[in-house]
Amino acid sequence: MKRKTRKMRGRKTAGYGARKKHRGKGSKGGKGMSGSGKRADQKKTLILKKYGKEYFGKRGFVSRKKKTKAINLDQLMEKLALFIRKGYAQKIEGAIEIDLQKAGYDKLLGRGKVKEKLLIKVKSFSKKAQEKVEQAKGQIIAQEVKIKSKEQEELQKEKQGKGKKREGKARGKNNETGKKEEGEEEEKGSEGKSKKKED
């Protein structure tokens, strides 16, 4: 009896030797874009021609989350002398006025004790911090900071540009209507003169 198949049954590779040698796309490179990932080191000339340098490397995004820098009351009391030296704080009529935003802090927190009368300027603060400062006959003044994003600024510029264009168009229309009215008046005047001559 003749054998129906030449493949060696019962063998792991059916008689083709190593599996990688019988995969159908040669022993190098592979098919199409295989092996051309961003961290790969082959087929670079092909990819550079097709897609350019931007194909390689990592891509991410810019985080727009802003970190708030906070300070506790005990840290503030420790740094009082330093703040006075640097000009972030000054003594005024039995109290110490502190500009925390000038010192680079956004928020005041309530850990620690207040030993002196303080007038604190800060963007935001906790209830505990407010209670402790007011118990020591001090005061916290909330500072409003309006930060315009680049997108908002661009939108404002666009609106201003559109407003100027509208004003220009309106002026042009007014000039045109004025010229038409002047032309009509001149025509009426010339018609009146011609009638008088005929009389």
What does this structure look like?
The protein has 199 residues and is α/β, with parallel strands linked by helices. The chain has a domain at 70-142: Ribosomal Protein L15, Chain: K, domain 2, CATH 3.100.10.10. 39% of the residues lie in helices and 13% in strands. It has five helices and seven strands; from the N terminus they run αβααβββββαβα. It has helices at residues 44-50, 73-78, 80-86, 127-135, 150-198; strands spanning 70-72, 89-92, 95-99, 107-109, 118-122, 124-125, 139-142. The protein has a four-stranded mixed sheet. Strands 1-4-6 form a three-stranded parallel sheet. A hairpin with a 2-residue loop joins strand 2 and strand 3. It starts with 43 loop residues before the first helix and ends with a helix. The mean pLDDT is 77.
**Count of DSSP strands:** 7
Order of helices and strands: HEHHEEEEEHEH
Approximately how much beta-strand content do the residues carry? 5-15%
Reading off the top of the CATH hierarchy, the class of the domain at 70-142 is best stated as Alpha Beta
Distance between the termini: 135 Å
Q: Biggest sheet: strands, sense, closure?
A: 4 strands, mixed
Residues in helices, as a percent range: 25-40%
Low-confidence stretches: none
Strands across the major sheet, in which order?
2-3-5-7
Shape: flat
